[in-house]
Design brief:
Layout: E1 8-11, E2 14-23, H1 28-31, E3 36-40, E4 44-48, E5 54-60, E6 71-75, E7 82-87, H2 94-101, E8 109-114, E9 129-132, E10 137-138, H3 144-153, E11 158-162, E12 168-172
Antiparallel strand pairs: 1-2, 3-10, 3-11, 4-5, 4-8, 5-7, 6-7, 8-9, 11-12
Length: 178
């Protein structure tokens, strides 16, 4: 999974936050009303490939070695981080992922692993679950002020827009100054 661009440009003096109204090049389609907004869940990204193998998303920082079996997907020229997939069975998520798999059949695709032992459980779940990416649409404003108000009025992590041609863009609550 390639890194999803943030809808608005980051402030070079404060990389944690975006610049109000300054759209990231290539994300203008969101403001034109193209694509579908979906809820961004706060967990860890996993993938079931076409061969039935499960993977966990993994970032490798500059100067660090990738784990065995890792598959690089993207490289961020700004941060130097590499993004790719690591076999799920060699990660710390193995047990929780197995709990989420129990009793279900799965289609190839990407999922967010969420639950009581994942990232402090910001979703407040009682059990470990796999949530398919892009499955739960939202009706959200498409301007900066409207989006800011919407995100600050909700407690979830953010929004991901999915364009029919495969492009994506995101905006997280924490990207906004409060």
């Amino acid at each position: 999974m390639k890194k999803i661009p943030t809808l608005y440009e980051r402030d070079e003096n404060d990389r944690k936050h975006v610049i109000p109204g300054q759209v990231t090049e290539g994300c203008e389609w969101v403001l034109r009303g193209e694509g579908q907004a979906t809820r961004k869940y706060d967990g860890t990204c996993t993938m079931l490939d076409d061969d039935g193998k499960w993977w966990a998303r993994r970032e490798v920082k500059p100067g660090k070695d990738a784990p065995p079996g890792w598959r690089e997907v993207d490289h961020d020229d700004v941060t130097g981080k590499r993004v790719g997939w690591e076999p799920i069975e060699q990660t710390g998520w193995t047990k929780f992922h197995a709990e989420a798999l129990a009793g279900w059949s799965w289609d190839a695709g990407t999922y967010e692993l969420c639950g009581p032992r994942v990232n402090g459980n910001p979703e407040g779940l009682a059990d470990h679950v796999l949530i398919p990416h892009g499955r739960y649409p939202l009706d959200v404003p498409r301007d900066f002020d409207g989006l800011s108000g919407y995100l600050l009025d909700h407690t979830f992590e953010g929004i991901v827009w999915h364009h029919p041609d495969g492009r994506r863009a995101k905006l997280k609550r924490r990207d906004l100054r409060r």
